Automatic annotation (TrEMBL):
Residues 27-56 are annotated as: Disordered. It comes from Hymenobacter saemangeumensis. It comes from the Bacteria. Residues 27-52 have a biased composition (Polar residues). This is Tip attachment protein J domain-containing protein. The lineage of its organism: Bacteria, Pseudomonadati, Bacteroidota, Cytophagia, Cytophagales.
Length: 729
C-alpha cells in the first residue's frame, strides 16, 4: 500500500486500500508530440469510500441530498505522497457515486492556470474581456495624433499605426479616422496574468516577444445585440373609426407613436422611448425613418387651391434629413417617408416625428373643403393581449386597429462613431480567447510551460533555452531500473517514431484571402520516407501581413477593395474581412508623416496638418535581426529542440526510481543524461507515479549532433532510503 493522503478544502478525506492503490498521478508539461496543446498533470479516476467524513466533505453528493452544488464544482485539493505534496493546489472533479464509493479525479499543474483563464461557468474568457479601461480615450484627432508617436507606444504599450487598408492614402495628409489602435502583446500578456492571479517568467527578455504587436485588423463595431437593444420600431394604434382627421390647415403636430408591444414593433431596452419620442443613450451613427400613409384632398370644383402634407424628423427640435411631403389639388392617397441616414447623435438627444398640413392659394383662390386623414381602417386588429392579427373584422368601436405602413424606426449603425470612447479590449480580436492567445505565444516560442506546484507561478522556457539547458542536464543514470523477470518490470519500449509527425511538418499562419497563400509559413523536415508527406506542427490564430506596394515601408491589412481599379473612375469600395494580425514593432523603422487635425472641416476649408514621427511595424524582413517568418526565424531559433528530437527519433518508455522530491522538483525544460542509454533526453511524461515503486517515464532522445556540448549539473545522487516501502515492481 502506498502512503497517500488527499485533502479537499484543507480537510483530510478518508482513503482505503482500494483508494491508495489507484492514486498514481501522471506528470506532464512538455509533450513534444502535441505542440498544439498545453499539457496538465492528472490522476486516473480514483474511488473513495462513502464514509461519513467523505459524505460531509463532498457535500452529501452520494446520498442524493447534495448541498451547494458540490458535484458541479471544482474543489481545491492536495495530494501528498510520502509526506511531500506532489499535487498541491490540484482540482478535484467529482464524477459520480457508484457501489457505495465516490469516483473522483485530480488534475493539477498547468490545469490550475488554464482554469483561471475561464469564466465561472467554465467557458473560456475572450481577449475582449480583459480590463484595459485605464487606457480609455476619446477617438478624436488630437488623441490619435498624440498616440501615433514612436515614444508614446514605447512608454504605454499601445498607440496608433499606419497601414495600407485598401483605400488611397497620402502620407502627408492622413485622415486620423483611418487610423486604429495597436496593442503590444506584452501589455495583453501582463494584464492577462494580473487578472488570472498568476506570475510568470519574464518574457520581455526575449526580443521577439518584447516587440510583438497586435494591430487592429477589422475596426471595432457595435454588435448586433448591442444595436438591437437600442433599436426602435414604433407604430400608431387607434380606436376603430377614430382616425386622425383635420379639415383645416394645422401646424406641426408631434406624431403620437404609441405601440411597441408586439412584433414587428420593438421597444428599446437600452434607450428611453416615452411621450412619443426617443432619447438617445449611446453616441453613434443612426439611421432614422418615419412613414405615414396619408389621405388629403380639396373639393375638385371649383378647381382652385391646393393642400399639402409633410412628415419630418426632428432632433432636439431641429429638422434633420429629408422630409416626406406632397402638395396636391385633388384627392390623393400616398405614403410619406422622412429619412435621415448616418446621422451622428449624442447621448441625451431627443428624436421625434412631426406631421403638418397646409393650405395653398392657387388657381385664383384658397382650397375648398380641405381634408387630411391618417388611418384607413385596414383589417389589422390589435387584440386585447397585444397581438396583431390580419382579420376581416367589420367596424367595431371597441376594437383597436394599427396600420402596418405607419412606422417610426431608429437603428444604431454598426460603424464606430467619431468621438466615441475607445476601449482597447474592444479592438482586440473579437472572438479570440485568452487561451488561444497564450497558446499562440507559446507556439511561436516553442515554449515549455510548467506551473509551480506550490505557488501561482508559471515557468516558461523557450525552445532555444531548452537546448541550452543541456549544460544543466540531470544525471538519472543511477535511477534507471532495468529489472526483468516474472516479478520485474513490464517490458521496456523503444519507438523510432515520435508523435504524428510527417516528412514535412509545417508551422502555419492562418490563411487569409487577402494574403498570399503560405506567406510566412515554414517547416521542419524529417528524412524518413515511412512517414506521411505533409503534416502540421500548429496553425497560429493570426494571419501573416505582407508589405504594401502603395505605401512603401508599411504593411497592408486590406479592409477595402476598390471596385474599379481605373483611377479615372470615382472610387467605390467593397468591404473585406481581414483576419487578426500579429506583427513586430521595430526600433529604427521610423517615418515622418502628416496627419490632418480638422478632418470634419466645412467644404473649401484648408486642411490643417501636424507632423508626427511614427514607427512602421513589419512582419518578415531579411534585413531585420529577426522577424515572424517561420522559415527564417521562428523554427531555426525556437524549434531546435524538436529538430533534435525528430532527427533519428527515439521515443523510449523506461522505468526510473523517482522520489517524491524528484517529482516536486521536476523541471521538464531541463534534459536528463542516462549513461546506460548513452544519450541526453527530454522527459515527456511521468506515468502513474508511486513513491514506493519504479515509475514509467516517457523520454525522447536529443540527437547528439544537434545539441551544445554538455556539462553535467546536480541531481546525480540516489538514496534508496528516500523510498517508502521495501519493494519495486
Amino acid at each position: 500500500m502506498t502512503d497517500n493522503q488527499l485533502y479537499v478544502e484543507g480537510e483530510l478525506l478518508d482513503l482505503d486500500d482500494a483508494s491508495h492503490e489507484s492514486f498514481y498521478p501522471t506528470f506532464q508539461a512538455n509533450d513534444r508530440s502535441k505542440p498544439e496543446s498545453i499539457q496538465s498533470s492528472f490522476t486516473p479516476e480514483v474511488s473513495l469510500p462513502g464514509s461519513q467524513r467523505n459524505h460531509r466533505l463532498l457535500g452529501q453528493a452520494g446520498t442524493g441530498q447534495e448541498t451547494a452544488g458540490t458535484p458541479y464544482r471544482r474543489l481545491q485539493a492536495s495530494l501528498v505522497c510520502g509526506g511531500i505534496e506532489v499535487l498541491p493546489f490540484a482540482i478535484l472533479i467529482l464524477k459520480g457515486y457508484r457501489g457505495g464509493r465516490y469516483h473522483v479525479q485530480l488534475v493539477g499543474g498547468n490545469k490550475r492556470w488554464i482554469e483561471a483563464l475561464n469564466r465561472p461557468d467554465g467557458k473560456p474568457k475572450l481577449l475582449s474581456e480583459l480590463d484595459l479601461s485605464r487606457y480609455n480615450h476619446e477617438w478624436t484627432p488630437a488623441n490619435i495624433i498624440a498616440r501615433l508617436s514612436y515614444d508614446y507606444f514605447e512608454q504605454h504599450g499601445y498607440g496608433y499605426e499606419v497601414y495600407d487598408r485598401g483605400k488611397e492614402v497620402d502620407l502627408d495628409t492622413i485622415d486620423p479616422y483611418s487610423l486604429y489602435p495597436s496593442i503590444s502583446a506584452r501589455l495583453v500578456w501582463e494584464q492577462l496574468l494580473l487578472e488570472s492571479g498568476f506570475a510568470a517568467t519574464d518574457l520581455t527578455t526575449e526580443p521577439i516577444f518584447n516587440q510583438l504587436n497586435i494591430p487592429t485588423a477589422k475596426p471595432y463595431s457595435f454588435s448586433e445585440d448591442f444595436r438591437e437593444a437600442r433599436g426602435l420600431v414604433a407604430g400608431w394604434r387607434y380606436q376603430d373609426g377614430r382616425m386622425f382627421r383635420r379639415y383645416s390647415e394645422f401646424g406641426p403636430v408631434v406624431w403620437f407613436w404609441n405601440y411597441v408591444d408586439q412584433a414587428p414593433y420593438q421597444n428599446p431596452t437600452e434607450a428611453d422611448f416615452s411621450n412619443h419620442q426617443y432619447t438617445v443613450s449611446t453616441l453613434g451613427f443612426y439611421s432614422l425613418s418615419a412613414s405615414l400613409e396619408v389621405v388629403l384632398s380639396c373639393a375638385p370644383s371649383p378647381a382652385r387651391g391646393e393642400v399639402s402634407a409633410k412628415v419630418a424628423i426632428q432632433v432636439n427640435g431641429n429638422q434633420v434629413g429629408t422630409p416626406g411631403e406632397i402638395r396636391v389639388g385633388n384627392y390623393t392617397k400616398t405614403t410619406l417617408v422622412a429619412k435621415a441616414e448616418r446621422i451622428l447623435l449624442q447621448p441625451g438627444d431627443v428624436v421625434r416625428v412631426i406631421f403638418q398640413g397646409d393650405e395653398w392659394q392657387t388657381f385664383g383662390g384658397w382650397p375648398t373643403n380641405p381634408f387630411w386623414q391618417v388611418g384607413t381602417s385596414r383589417p389589422f386588429i390589435v387584440m386585447s393581449d397585444g397581438r396583431i392579427v390580419d382579420a376581416p373584422i367589420p367596424y367595431n368601436p371597441n376594437l383597436f386597429r394599427i396600420d402596418i405602413v405607419n412606422q417610426f424606426r431608429i437603428e444604431l449603425l454598426a460603424e464606430w462613431p467619431r468621438g466615441g470612447i475607445i476601449s482597447l479590449s474592444d479592438w482586440l480580436p473579437a472572438e479570440m480567447t485568452q487561451l488561444e492567445f497564450v497558446k499562440c505565444i507559446f507556439q511561436l516560442l516553442n515554449a515549455t510551460v510548467q506551473t509551480d506546484l506550490y505557488s501561482p507561478t508559471i515557468y516558461i522556457s523557450t525552445g532555444e533555452r531548452v537546448l541550452a539547458n543541456v549544460g544543466r542536464a540531470l544525471d538519472w543514470s543511477a535511477k534507471l531500473d532495468r529489472s526483468t523477470g516474472a516479478e520485474g518490470l513490464p517490458e521496456r519500449e523503444t519507438e523510432y517514431r515520435f508523435g504524428d509527425y510527417a516528412q514535412r511538418n509545417e508551422l502555419r499562419w492562418k490563411e487569409d484571402d487577402t494574403v498570399a497563400k503560405g506567406y510566412g509559413d515554414g517547416a521542419i523536415l524529417i528524412e524518413d520516407e515511412s512517414l506521411p508527406a505533409v503534416g502540421a506542427l500548429a496553425e497560429l490564430p493570426f494571419s501573416a501581413s505582407q508589405p504594401s506596394q502603395a505605401l512603401g515601408g508599411f504593411l497592408k491589412i486590406l479592409g477595402y477593395k476598390r471596385r474599379d481599379p481605373n483611377p479615372a473612375v470615382a472610387a467605390e469600395y467593397d468591404t473585406l474581412n481581414p483576419l487578426p494580425r500579429l506583427v513586430l514593432r521595430p526600433d529604427n523603422l521610423l517615418f515622418n508623416i502628416g496627419v490632418v487635425t480638422n478632418p470634419d472641416r466645412p467644404p473649401n476649408t484648408p486642411a490643417q496638418v501636424t507632423r508626427v514621427t511614427t514607427a512602421a511595424s513589419y512582419f518578415a524582413s531579411a534585413a531585420a535581426p529577426f522577424d515572424l517568418s517561420a522559415e527564417r526565424t521562428i523554427l531555426p531559433r525556437f524549434w531546435g529542440d524538436l529538430k533534435a528530437i525528430l532527427k533519428g527519433a527515439r521515443h523510449l518508455k523506461e522505468y526510473f526510481r523517482l522520489t517524491p522530491r524528484d517529482i516536486a522538483e521536476l523541471d521538464f525544460a531541463i534534459p536528463i543524461w542516462c549513461a546506460p542509454l548513452g544519450d541526453y533526453f527530454l522527459v515527456s511524461a511521468v506515468r502513474e507515479y508511486s513513491s514506493n515503486q519504479s515509475v514509467q517515464c516517457e523520454i525522447v532522445r536529443l540527437h547528439p549532433t544537434l545539441i551544445p556540448p554538455p556539462t553535467l549539473g546536480t541531481g546525480q545522487e540516489f538514496y534508496s532510503d528516500e523510498f517508502f516501502g521495501p519493494e519495486f515492481w
